[in-house]
């Protein structure tokens, strides 16, 4: 069944920089914003952009991610002709099963893509928080007669050395790609969003098979090779909110962005909804002596204390006289009475016992999933 465009979401990353939050789940499955998982944003972008055929490439600890996506019905992706497909690595007659990089993962799924014979392939990262109309990027790609288009966003010059940087001419064409340059010439950072003409990309994969070439990664291998071959490649400038939540600090900041201003990332926008696999939870209960300010409180929460500038995920319980501020509390956390928590991220299922005090410090306080924290542990420091 031919499709004009097919999306492939790279969702197999281990996310080691997120530490305790990715010990048992893939980074795209990490809780975010009280009721979502990180991958909900890119899946919702596909749905809102009218893209109805999506492959999700999984690898590291995929069980929860697979269960969350299911048949895609929550994103209107349970289609007869199209829909969402979970694509784990597999053993074939030529090589082992693991994906070696972003480009290798797409290469391994050539037969899936060929079944739909698309004109264009949209390649996405499953671990970024943003809203984007991919149709606008596709129209730009077609207008520029581009063979490969890479979405870019301006970052601060002090941050540019952390990203893959695209150096462009005045017409937006890319003449050079630099991976995390020490002295960047540009501040146009790659967002990990690519549109390729499928026939062209396919030729590179076939060539790599015949000549035993390692085109494993788009940023390190394939894009530099295409630039060397003078392939018409353009940068698509994106002006909205975008954040790579690959570290504890960036994940905390992105959660805080949700409550600082609707102008930053508006979850209430009816024209661009973020869909998710909604948990069947009872309504939230707020006690008579509780005070909640500038916070997101998901269903199933029982709040008997005070909450300020925080995100409470579903199923969280906060005891009497407790005070939570500038914190992200992940699902099903139990917080006892007379507890103080400041600038922290509390992992799913953790138990914070009565009278525990976690004060703001230079770094974000982190409590692992299912940890039990009592007064004795605080003197040794929070991990």
TrEMBL record:
Annotated site location: Could play a key role in the communication between the regulatory and the substrate sites: 59, 98
Official protein name in the record: Glucose-1-phosphate adenylyltransferase
Enzyme class: transferase
Listed CDD domains: ADP_Glucose_PP, LbH_G1P_AT_C
InterPro entries: ADP-Glc_PPase (IPR011831), ADP_Glu_pyroP_CS (IPR005836), GlgC_bac (IPR023049), GlmU/GlgC-like_hexapep (IPR056818), NTP_transferase_dom (IPR005835), Nucleotide-diphossugar_trans (IPR029044), Trimer_LpxA-like_sf (IPR011004)
Pfam family, one: Hexapep_GlmU
Residue ranges occupied by any Nucleotidyl transferase domain in the UniProt entry: 7-259
Catalytic activity: alpha-D-glucose 1-phosphate + ATP + H(+) = ADP-alpha-D-glucose + diphosphate
Keywords from the named record: ATP-binding, Carbohydrate metabolism, Glycogen biosynthesis, Glycogen metabolism, Nucleotide-binding, Nucleotidyltransferase, Transferase
Domain of life per record: Bacteria
Family (UniProt): Belongs to the bacterial/plant glucose-1-phosphate adenylyltransferase family.
Gene3D superfamilies registered for this protein in UniProt: Hexapeptide repeat proteins, Spore Coat Polysaccharide Biosynthesis Protein SpsA, Chain A
Species, as recorded: Romboutsia hominis
Cross-referenced SUPFAM superfamilies: Nucleotide-diphospho-sugar transferases (SSF53448), Trimeric LpxA-like enzymes (SSF51161)
Domain named Glucose-1-phosphate adenylyltransferase/Bifunctional protein GlmU-like C-terminal hexapeptide: residues: 288-358
Purpose of the protein: Involved in the biosynthesis of ADP-glucose, a building block required for the elongation reactions to produce glycogen. Catalyzes the reaction between ATP and alpha-D-glucose 1-phosphate (G1P) to produce pyrophosphate and ADP-Glc.
Binding site for alpha-D-glucose 1-phosphate: 99, 164, 179-180, 190
Involved pathway(s): Glycan biosynthesis; glycogen biosynthesis
Enzyme Commission number: 2.7.7.27
Gene Ontology terms describing biological process: glycogen biosynthetic process
Assembly, per entry: Homotetramer.
GO MF term set: ATP binding; glucose-1-phosphate adenylyltransferase activity
């Amino acid at each position: 069944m031919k499709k004009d465009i097919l999306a492939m979401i790279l969702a197999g990353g281990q996310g080691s920089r997120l530490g305790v939050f990715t010990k048992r789940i893939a980074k795209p499955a990490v809780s975010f914003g009280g009721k979502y998982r990180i991958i909900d944003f890119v899946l919702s972008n596909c749905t809102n952009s009218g893209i109805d055929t999506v492959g999700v490439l999984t690898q590291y600890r995929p069980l929860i991610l697979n269960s969350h996506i299911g048949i895609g019905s929550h994103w209107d992706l349970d289609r007869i002709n199209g829909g969402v497909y979970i694509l784990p690595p597999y053993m074939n007659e030529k090589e082992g099963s693991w994906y070696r990089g972003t480009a290798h993962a797409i290469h391994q799924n050539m037969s899936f893509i060929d079944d739909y014979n698309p004109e264009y392939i949209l390649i996405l990262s499953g671990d970024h928080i943003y809203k984007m109309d991919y149709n606008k990027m596709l129209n730009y790609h077609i207008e520029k007669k581009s063979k490969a288009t890479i979405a870019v966003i301006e970052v601060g010059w002090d941050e540019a050395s952390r990203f893959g940087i695209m150096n462009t001419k005045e017409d937006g064409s890319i003449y050079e790609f630099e991976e995390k340059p020490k002295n960047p010439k540009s501040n146009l950072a790659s967002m990990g969003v690519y549109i390729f003409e499928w026939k062209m990309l396919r030729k590179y994969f076939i060539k790599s098979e015949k000549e035993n070439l390692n085109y494993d990664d788009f940023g390190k291998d394939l894009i530099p090779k295409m630039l060397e071959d003078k392939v018409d490649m353009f940068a698509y400038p994106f002006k909205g909110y975008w954040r790579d939540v690959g570290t504890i600090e960036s994940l905390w900041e992105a959660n805080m962005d949700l409550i600082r201003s609707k102008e930053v990332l508006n979850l209430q926008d009816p024209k661009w909804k973020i869909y998710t696999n909604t948990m069947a939870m009872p309504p939230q209960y707020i006690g008579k002596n509780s005070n909640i300010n500038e916070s997101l409180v998901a269903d199933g929460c029982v709040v008997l204390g005070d909450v300020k500038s925080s995100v409470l995920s579903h199923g969280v319980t906060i005891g009497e006289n407790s005070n939570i501020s500038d914190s992200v509390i992940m699902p099903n956390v139990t917080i006892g009475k007379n507890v103080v928590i400041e600038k922290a991220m509390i992992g799913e299922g953790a138990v914070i016992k009565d009278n525990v005090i976690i004060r703001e410090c230079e770094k974000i306080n982190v409590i692992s999933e299912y940890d039990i924290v009592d007064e004795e542990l605080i003197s040794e420091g929070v991990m």
